[in-house]
Amino acid sequence: MLPRSAGAAELRVAIDAMLHGLAVAPAGGLWGVDEDDDRRLTARELEVLKLLAEGASNKVIARQLAVSVHTAKFHVASILAKLDATGRTDAVAHAVRLGLLML
Prior knowledge:
By secondary structure, the protein is mainly alpha-helical.
């Protein structure tokens, strides 16, 4: 996925990457570069999302990230809200479609 403003050089690189089986997304993320965007996942939420994709429970997420189970639940809930997902699997599916996760 590239923004409409992508130039010829960016387009050539994206096509070459696709020909090699790679996914392409703009460097600023798919939701733009506004750091104040409420929907943007934090670095910690991206870590949690990767663990969700591996099938980790809240307890496992908490252990892996050295946080409380309550904090893990909070991060999962935040991810579900930001991705407008109905559950953990749906969040992973949305993240893959948005280019946030590669499976």
